[in-house]
Give the backbone structure.
Amino acid sequence: MATDARILPLTRPAPRGILRSLLLTLPIFIWSPLMMGFRPGAKFDPVSTTAAAITALFMTVLFYIMMRTNSTYRWRRIFFVSLGILFPIGFIHNLYVMRGSMGIPIEEMIAGRTPFCFMPIPLLILPAAFTRTVIFPGSIASSSHGIAAMVGLWLALTLVMGKGWCSYACFFGGIEEGVAAIPPRAKIRKLDPRLRYIPWAVLLAMVLLSLALFEPAYCMWLCPFKAVSEYVAARNTVGLVQNVIFILLFAGLVIVLPFLTKKRTQCSWFCPFGAFQSIFNKISIFEMRIDKERCKPCLVCQNACPNLSLSKESVARGETLLSCMKCGACVDACPRQAIVWHIKGTQIAWKPERARLMFLYAAWAMAIMFGGSIIAQGIITILHVFV
Amino acid sequence: MCHLSPTPARMAREYPLMAAFVSYGEALALGLASGPACIAACGPVLIPSMLTERTGFRHHARYLSAFLAARLVGYMLFAVVAWELGALASMLPAPRLLMMGVVYLMLACVLLWYAYSARRSCAPSCADSKLIQIGENRNRNVAGAAALGLLTGLNLCPPFVVAGIRAAQLGSMAAALVFFLAFFLGTSIWFVPFVGLGCIVRNQAIITVARMAMVLIALYYLLIGIAMLLGKKTYGY
């Protein structure tokens, strides 16, 4: 761990030059319109085209600012919160157009017309291994939203990004990150570190129950985001109980607790998919590291981390916890530039900006691919209302 | 047609040895084939509870033996009931739902007790300090495993119902008991790999996660149990 003051400056680097920033943004400038459907011969629709153009411009400008200012978290958060707000807008609108209701009836599930979500991926593995059956009631490969396509894309991206998925692609996390950004300071500061174990417990319980019940138990009983996507069309008391659970979890973990703690509490204290993603942080080549020689443990980073992925012990070890989402909040907050983006196998703090760039290209390309279309869909819905 | 497929009772009368071989071989095969389903049904109870135990193959083997032995008792009880009733299928849906509801509620209570009591007994696995071992309740794991084994043994999973219906067709209660014993042996082979959980090094994180998972699973069983007692459907909203 030979860190060298000559390699890493102690003060925050000055803003990058405009030309250099534009040059670094060029790949994203090309990628964004491509992902938004601007291709030769594509059908022209004024509303869709406007929404796609706004989204492509939005993503490109944000990336440019990240390049120019050398800071990540604040600008990523703008994208992420927009994603969190626009996802339910577009999705709920679509549900009303298709079904006339947000509730999904059992007939739709039997017909496999449930849009696939990445949340049940860990729950599908054991039943598929034992019986070669996918227990999610969606189409396997009939569309770009089919299970096979989604799982394949998720696997490819997650192997590279690790838990970066949760900061750049998850369309649920943005809601609580937005709520957490509202209050100027946290009202609850002392948080029990054992709460970090809950996502693993939810993961273990849901994986085992999914195998026993042969249905995605998390989606049936515990997903807080059912409250803003497609809830259970309650036709009996059990359905009603399920909906009450969804709403209470959403209100508690996505609204109230983020507001009181300024943390992403659903992600930190509940989400089983997040726990599952954490495992891939072991494989991903990107990680955050702390230069122990430079760090005077002021723990500003610990307070800044929205996901409780830093503890006194982990800071002393020079690393984040396994649950790190690579959002960059700690890097931006550190007054001594001690936390850096790092590529495994290289010397710590050796050209950290290069590691950051490599990570951000991968992360932003993924963000545009997944989040871009969702943001565009949300904008289309809004344009339909006003235009 | 009657000659091609004789009833088990007639076959037992005319060819007793072959009948026994076919019948118990069938039970063993049924058990072996149903093993994955049994693991799926018992997994939510067995895996978290084993994870709260201390490290070691021998310890886990003892735990699993207690679990399986109690499960065998559950099977035997079920065999007696199945034979006495003539056929499980004749059991009315309402009493069956009631019985299942009670079993689920008891399972939830045992899991909650287990999750609570595991707080004191992670002891030797958590750390080397002998001081922590003072609080360990050595009887907890055997009694807990036995309670969980018995209750999961009474659980009406689909292969178990099939075995119950088949056992009900046999000539005597003793034959039904042996049939269930063979079925039990077939399913139990699938449980042997669980002893491997003994090689996972325990720390506070693993034990806490296992305890929390037990509470979640217990809450699910509690909800399902109450729903069954109230006669509510738990599938197909």
